[in-house]
Amino acid sequence: MTKPDYPIRTERLTLRPFTPDDHADLHAYQSRPDVVRFLYGEARTPEETTDNLKLKVSVTWPEKEGEHVALAVVHEGRVIGETVLKYLSEAHRQGEIGYIFHPDHHGRGFATEASRAMLELGFVNLGLHRIVASCDANNDRSWQVMERLGMRREAHFRHNEIFKGAWGEELVYAILEDEWRAANHR
Ligand SMILES: CC(C)(COP(=O)(O)OP(=O)(O)OC[C@H]1O[C@@H](n2cnc3c(N)ncnc32)[C@H](O)[C@@H]1OP(=O)(O)O)[C@@H](O)C(=O)NCCC(=O)NCCS
């Protein structure tokens, strides 16, 4: 395991740990009902964003299983979203990625670009063997990101949980280290 040197730069974006100064940008998307439609939880109040930001600031790398890091995705000096890497299992070298972006910045490939960097952190820095991602089956924009990343649809769970008052459907995607290395010439 090698903790990355921040910031991480991709073609158009900078990824770095959140700081206490990010409240306004974070709240701009965490407070929106359309953003949380397929997420657990509801649109946040400013105080809830403050609490969430404290958690984000406190973890800059998932040192042990069960931990996750949320990195701020910066474009033209503003935090436009976040990208998440969870360390699910040390023994089985499993991890998970996730992403949330402000709707003003959807439709430009930013979630896919930032998530590619998270796959690299997972496979190279965390030494993972398999990385998964999951979403509500109705969250088309989310599973389309997973497909752009070269992940494989491995499961479609029907009615596996009650989500926001109704039976939910969940998709699970995954990619293995050797598949990722072959696709990325690594
Ligand atoms: C999920 C989410 C991040 C996806 O955002 P997105 O903008 O659709 O995804 P990307 O950033 O990969 O952009 C892809 C779009 O940009 C377009 N695009 C433009 N330039 C591109 C580029 N250089 N590379 C890739 N795509 C590009 C693609 O064609 C695609 O557009 P389309 O959907 O109209 O075909 C966003 O919908 C979101 O934040 N939702 C709310 C939170 C959420 O549900 N998160 C997931 C929880 S599981």
From TrEMBL:
Q: Which residues cross the membrane?
A: none
Q: Where is the N-acetyltransferase domain?
A: 13-178
Query: According to its UniProt record, what is one Pfam family this protein matches?
Result: Acetyltransf_3
From which residue to which does the signal peptide run?
none
Read off the PANTHER family from this record: GNAT FAMILY, PUTATIVE (AFU_ORTHOLOGUE AFUA_3G00765)-RELATED-RELATED, N-ACETYLTRANSFERASE DOMAIN-CONTAINING PROTEIN
Q: Which residues form a coiled coil?
A: none
**What is this protein's record name?**
GNAT family protein
